[in-house]
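Narrative progress, year one. The postdoctoral researcher (J.K.) led the effort to move from monomer predictions toward full complexes, under supervision of the PI. The following entry was the first complex the group processed end to end, covering 631 residues in total.
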Amino acid sequence: MAVHAYTAGLITDVLLIVSVIVLIAGLWHLIVRWGHRSPGRFFSSWATESFRGGGIAFLRVLLLDVLLFRRIWRRSKRRWVLHVAMFWGFILLGAFTVVSLIGLILAYLDPVGPGQAFSLYLAGFHLPYDLLGYLILVGSGIALGRRLLVKKVRERTSFSDLFLVGSVFVIALTGMIAEWYSGYATMVGPVITNWNLALEFMSWHIYVAFLLFVMVLPWTKFRHIITVPLTVLARRGGD
Amino acid sequence: MLELDACTRCQECVAACPVVRAGIPDGAMERIDIWRKAGTRSTGLIARFLSKPRAGSDLPALFESLFRCTTCGICSVVCESGILTTPLWESMRSAGRELGFRHTDVERTAAVIMEKHNPYAMLPSTRTAWIPADTRVAGSAPVGFFAGCTIAFRQPELGRAALRILARSNVPFCMLGTDESCCGSFLFRTGSFEEYSSTIRAMIQDFQKRGVNTVLFPCAGCLKTATVDWPKVYGGPLPFKTMPFSVFIRDLIREKKVRFHSHSPRRVLYHDPCHGGRHLVHHLGKEWVFEAPREIIQAIPGLELVEFPENREIGVCCGAGGGVKTGHPDLSQKIAGEKIDSLSRIGADILASTCPFCKRNLDDARVTAGSAIEVLDVIELADRMMEPENHA
C-alpha cells in the first residue's frame, strides 16, 4: 500500500498538529453554536430527542438511516448506490489506511518478527484498497462533473459545493497517482514504477488530506459528515 | 442550528418544491443557507470577538421567499438529512416578524383573525348560520365536531354533508357554537400565533367541559393545527383525541352502519392534502391520513380510485397553504393550475380531497382552466352516494 512513513517529515508533523488543533477548535465552536453557547444544553437536548423512542429505536435509526441511508433508498435507488459506494468507500479506505499505518509502525519496530508478518498480511489487501480508491475517484469525479456540466445543477451550485467535491477528488487523485507510481497498484502493476514520484505524490496526498479535509471539516460543508447523522438521529430518522 | 448545518445542498428539495416547479426560483436549500449565514453573522467567531452582529442584506429576499412558501413540507420528506422544514419555516417567519419583516396582506389577514376570530372578516355571531335548524347538536357529548371557518363561512354545503352523515350514524355530538373560533392555522403558518393563544386555550377548555374525548375535523388545516400546534399552546397533550372526519366515515363503513347506492362507473382521483396528509402521518399514522379517504372511495360501488403519479407522502401541494393564497394568489393559482392540467393525462371524472381549502383552490383553478372535472370533498362524495333511506 502506498502509505509510507518516510513522508512523515517535519511539514507533515506540523500539518498534523495544526490540523488537529483547528479541527478540535472548529468542532467545539460548532457544538457551542448548536447549544446556543451552552455545549451541555446541546448534548442534553440532542440525547433527549435521539432517545425519545428508546434505545432499540435509536439503534434502528442508526443502522437503517445513518449507516444504510434508508431515506435516500426510498427516494432513488440510483442515488442510494452512489451514496453507499462513496460513504462506505471512504470509511473503509480510511480504516485500511489506519490499519496499514499500524502495520508499517510494527514493521519498523520489529522488521523480522510479527511486524514483518503483519506487513506481509496487509499486502494481501492491495486489491480492495485500490478498488475503493477507484470508487472514490470515479464517484467524486461524477459528482464534480454533475456540478459543473449539468445546467440545472450548476445554476444552484455554490463555491462550498464545488470545494467539497473538488477536495475529495483531489485527495483521491493524488493518492491514486502515488499508488500508480509505487508499482503496486492493481491493474497498473510495475509498468510506471517511479518511487520518487510516488513519494512526491504521497506527500501531496497527505498535505491536501490535512488542508482540504481534516483542518476545514468543521468550517466547510464537510461538516455534514457530522451534522447529518446527528440530525437524522435527533429526528429519529424523520419518522 | 444543527439542522441548518445538516443541509448537504443535494438539491432534492429544489426538485420537489411546487413553488420552484411553478417557475419561482426559491428553494429550501437557499433559505437554509441564508439563515445559517445570518446565524453565523450573529453567533460566529467574528461576531463573538468583535461583539458586533451584522445584519445581512440578503434577509429581505429571504423573508419574501418565505412568504411564497406553501409550507407543504415536501422538502422535509425528500431531505436526505431529515431536516424538519415546515416548523423551520414557521419559526423563521416568526423571527422575521420580530426583525420587522412583515407581509402586508398576511398582516392584514392576521389582524382580521384576531378581531373577528375568522379570516373572512365575518361577524362571529353568524358562524352557526350554516347549521340546519333541525340538526340535533348535544350540549355535551363524547364526540365533538369542529367545523372551521372555511366550512362555516364559505363551504356550508360541505358542513351540512358532514352533519347528515353524523345524523345517519346516530352518534350524539356537540359543537362549540358561536364560541368556535378560527383554529389559528393561518397564524401558526405565518408566525404570528402568540397573541391568539388564549382563544385556542379557551376552545380546548370548552371541549373539555362538554365531556368530549374525540373531536372530529372535516377540515385538514384545522385538524393539523389542533393536532400539532394546539398542544404547544396548551402546554402538553390535549385532553381529547383529534380525528379526521374521513376516519369517522371509514369506521361507519367498516361497521356497516351506512350503505351506498350503486352508480354508473366514475373515476375518482384523490388529492392528498399536505396538512391532512404528510404533516400528520407521524402523529396519526398512515392508515388514518392516507388510507381512510381511499378506503371510503373504494367502498362506494361504481367508483374507481385513481392516483396522481406522486401521491401520499410525496403528493404535490395544491398551492393554497402557508398563507400563499392570501399573500400570492396568482402563484397559488399557478400551482393549482398545474395539478388541473395533469388531470387530462390521468383521466378522472371527480377530483376528491379532504381539505376545504384545497378544494377551493383546485376548484378556482378548474374554473380558470375550463375543466369539466368535478371537485368534491370526500365527505360530500360519501354523503351523495349514501342510500337515501339512511338519511335522518
